[in-house]
Every structure is written in C-alpha cells, then in structure tokens.
C-alpha cells in the first residue's frame, strides 16, 4: 500500500531532521488513506513538534473521530487543546495591560488547560504570572511549586519562585 511507504518516507525524513519533508510525506499518506486514524495521529504529532498547532489539532481531531476508543489519540488531542488554551491566555497575560477581570478569565482558561493536561508545565507558569499580576502571590507560589515538582532541576523556575516569595514579602510588609 502506498500510504505505508509514505509513512516510512516520513520517518526517514524525521531521522534526517527534515520535518518539512516528513510533513509532506504524512500529508501524502493521509491523502492516500484518509480513514487511517493512525496516519492522522502521527501527522498530528509531527505538526505539533514543528510548532504548527492548528494543523496538529486538525489531524488529532480526525484521529479521534476515526477511532474514538484509542486513548493515545484522545490524550494527544487533550494535550493540543491544552497548548492552545495556554497560547490564548499567554497573549492576554503577556500584554501587561489586561484588566483584572480578563486575568481572572485567563486563570479559568489555564485551569482548564491543566485539567486537560496535568503535565502542561507552561500552564502552571502562566497561572503563576497571572496570579502575581493580581497580587495573589500565595496562589502564584502554589502554581509555581506545581511546575517545580515536574521540573525540580530547573534553576529558572527556582529563581522565579524566589522572586515571587520576595514579592509576597514586600506585599505583606506594605499592606
């Protein structure tokens, strides 16, 4: 079958660090065998690793529709949904001008991202940033501790935790 050869070509490209070529082969495989959930899943993973979330999401959704019982397809889709939510929240929080009501909305968005993918480190980090912007330093520290539990060796996160602790101390002394 042609699609199997296309998938093999895609993996050959991946091994050569040619992700653009891999995506072309996966797309060719999906066009040849559009009812293959596995091809759409693999295509989704490659798009996600290439930073193309919209296409990754599209193929992940197709994989789930074609084989709704396969848990790895659902986990991939939930991971991608989580990443999209984090990107949405990041734009608002990173603007630095969002009103409190919008920051609280983004906190809800980020909590949904964590519900979909409890290992989504970026969601915890942006939760900490949002809480910090709202002067809710205890919640910011709690969120950051969650991600540090996932990445205990990350010095950048430990430094950020120290900064949040200093802000809490200043906030408590100024209040």
UniProtKB/TrEMBL annotation:
PROSITE patterns: TPR (PS50005). It holds the Pfam family TPR_19. Keywords: Repeat, TPR repeat. InterPro entries: O-mannosyl-transferase_TMTC, TPR-like_helical_dom_sf, TPR_rpt. TPR repeats lie at residues 121-154. GO terms for biological process: endoplasmic reticulum unfolded protein response; protein O-linked glycosylation via mannose. One of its GO terms (molecular function) is mannosyltransferase activity. This is Tetratricopeptide repeat protein.
């Amino acid at each position: 079958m042609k699609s199997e050869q296309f998938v093999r070509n895609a993996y050959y490209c991946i091994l050569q660090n040619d992700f653009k070529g891999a995506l072309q082969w996966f797309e060719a495989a999906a066009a040849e065998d559009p009812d293959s959930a596995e091809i759409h899943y693999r295509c989704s993973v490659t798009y996600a690793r290439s930073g193309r979330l919209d296409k990754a999401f599209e193929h992940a959704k197709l994989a789930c529709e074609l084989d709704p019982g396969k848990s790895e397809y659902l986990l991939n889709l939930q991971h991608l949904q989580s990443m999209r939510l984090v990107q949405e929240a990041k734009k608002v929080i990173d603007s630095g001008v969002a009103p409190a009501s919008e920051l609280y909305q983004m906190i809800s968005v980020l909590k949904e991202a964590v519900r979909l993918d409890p290992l989504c480190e970026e969601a915890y980090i942006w939760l900490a940033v949002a809480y910090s912007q709202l002067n809710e330093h205890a919640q910011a520290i709690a969120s950051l501790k969650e991600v540090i539990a996932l990445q205990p060796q990350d010095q950048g996160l430990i430094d950020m935790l120290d900064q949040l602790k200093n802000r809490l101390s200043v906030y408590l002394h100024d209040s």
